[in-house]
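Exercise 3.2. Students should predict the tertiary structure of the chain below and write it as structure tokens, then compare their answer with the key that follows.

Predict this chain's 3D structure.
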Amino acid sequence: MTGSEVRATPSPSLAQHATGVFTLTALVASYTALGLMILVDRAVLPGRSIPSRIGWDMEEASSLLLVLVLLATTISITRVTEGTAGLRALAGRMTRWRVGWRWWLTAVAAVPAATVGLAVALGDHVVAPTPRTLIGELGASAVGLLLINVAEETTWAGFLQTRLERAHSLLVAAVLTAVPFALVHIPIRVVAREIDSPAELLPQFAVLLVICTIIRVLLGGVMRGAGNSILVVAATHTSFNRSNNVDGIAADVLVGQARPLAALAAAIVVAALILFALRGRLGRAERLRLDAAEVSRSASSARRS
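Answer key:
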């Protein structure tokens, strides 16, 4: 047996504690990497000008570093706990695009459309986007999806949240996932100068935890409805970001101050509608059924190859 085959053999002892091992490893690795980025940003270490050479800022560079660290952690823990079969299943989730058109439409359009509608109801008004704006938005969405959100949701939806769902309901798993999901975003806020003092850490974390819980419920529902497609979940994450961000499509077409509140409310409304549509499929039994079907497909694919 080769060394590669040995490393690909699952470890039953670690597999029993995969979510805990992953969470601890991901937090330590993320805070180490982003701690270095904070030191670079504050000019304690050299290199602050490097992201600007490709048109990025430090926040964008830190976000990319974060998702790369998380993806590397996810692949490593999956390899150790589930072996080659686990890696094959994870790759299948990342590339699964054959999903019903309703879920693709939900992923791409539901949150942006609801954001605009709710913002108008709260007093904002709409301006027509120019072709240049639409082309720029398409490019920004593609970059966000392919460089950030697919890798990010491979970690959170593809690995952690679905494993927690094997022991808990979708809602409980979403709340549990929201805690480390929020924690890894705290250093990003430090880099972005949204947190300037230790006194701001706890209030910022509390607000972030509420937002992250809403997002994890939304994305958990999409993951289940779309048959474990990380690609569809990542597209939903991208559409929320482009609705919520100051440079996203909602900001481009709305004039007023209601957009941030409307984007969060839109995520709540869409999540509630998805949960209603999936009623009766929110418990552990459905998660175990989906995972069993995935294992069967992966085994069939391996036999054919």
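Discussion points: Strands lie at 125-126, 254-255. Residues 9-295 form one domain.
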